[in-house]
Specification:
Its EC number is 2.1.1.-, 3.4.23.43. It comes from Caldimicrobium thiodismutans. Pfam families: A24_N_bact, Peptidase_A24. The structure is a single chain. This protein has 9 helices and no strands. By secondary structure, the protein is an all-alpha fold. The protein has a domain of 141 residues. Helix 3 packs across helix 4. It starts with a helix and ends in a 6-residue tail after the last helix. The relative contact order is 0.10. The structure holds zinc ion. Zinc ion (ZN) binds next to loops.
């Protein structure tokens, strides 16, 4: 029973992931999310419905456009799969104990983080519409029902401002030491969204895991460059590159959501 339920939720996740791909592609360009219908970004031929089936179309088209054979980005199946997986995990965690409304809010939370992580990765920015909707929906959840992290509305409200303030403060500190910004405005607002959903008690864990994942990624990038003998950048150069922090914050937020044990 729970298998088929999960399978059904996974399929819904795939479909939502397919929509997230559209958002990831169009939102930063300020294009409409609904019109025109999906088309190949290269040859602009509108896609048939069977070119648009999550995961499966990518497989049977062997990752190429059916018309011009341009290769389709790995981002499409990856976002669809992650979206399906995330929705199932959230469903199993929240639906049985807290009901469908709380699950829906956390589904919005998780998929929003997935979406803004990819936009941050590609465009080095987090759209306000995503971070603000995270903050407001977090407040509404705390107002409507008992938050699984037992956050009151006031706590949710204050935590979101505390999150924004905390990253602003860290960035100022970094600026004093390094003479440049380490974080962006988008990161501040994202931390506000995490605060609204997870509360200020999550901040230590979130920053700890986000930094840890950041350091691991940094080391992996170095190893990759060494192995592929790309013209080696010094660590200094690599650090000066704008490394998006949004994906790290998002992953850390999700880790806390599933394991809300404070490290402190
Ligand atoms: Zn094409």
């Amino acid at each position: 029973m729970i298998f088929w339920e999960s399978f059904f939720i996974f399929l819904i996740g795939l479909i939502l992931g397919s929509f997230l791909n559209v958002v990831i592609y169009r939102l930063p360009q300020g294009k409409s999310l609904i019109f025109p219908a999906s088309h190949c970004p290269k040859c602009e031929t509108p896609l048939r419905w069977y070119h648009n089936i999550p995961l499966l179309s990518f497989l049977f088209l062997k990752g190429r456009c059916a018309y011009c054979k341009a290769s389709i980005s790995w981002q499409y199946p990856l976002v669809e799969f992650l979206s399906g997986l995330l929705l199932v995990l959230l469903y199993l965690k929240f639906k049985p104990h807290y009901g469908v409304i709380v699950f829906s809010f956390f589904a919005f939370f998780g998929l929003n983080l997935l979406c803004l992580s990819f936009i941050d990765l590609f465009h080095k920015e987090i759209p306000d519409s995503l971070s603000f909707s995270l903050i407001f929906s977090g407040w509404i959840l705390a107002l409507l029902s008992k938050n699984p992290l037992s956050l009151s509305f006031l706590e949710s409200l204050l935590s979101s401002f505390a999150g924004i303030g905390l990253l602003f403060f860290i960035n100022e500190l970094y600026y004093l030491l390094a003479k440049r910004d380490g974080l962006g405005m988008g990161d501040f607002k994202l931390m506000g969204g995490l605060g609204a959903y997870l509360g200020y008690k999550s901040f230590f864990n979130v920053l700890f895991f986000a930094s840890l994942i950041g350091v691991v990624c940094f080391i992996l990038m170095r190893i990759y460059q060494k192995l592929s003998r790309e013209d080696l950048e010094t660590s200094e150069d690599l650090l000066k590159k704008e490394i998006p922090f949004g994906p790290f914050l998002s992953i850390a937020g999700l880790i806390y959501l599933f394991y809300p044990q404070s490290l402190l």
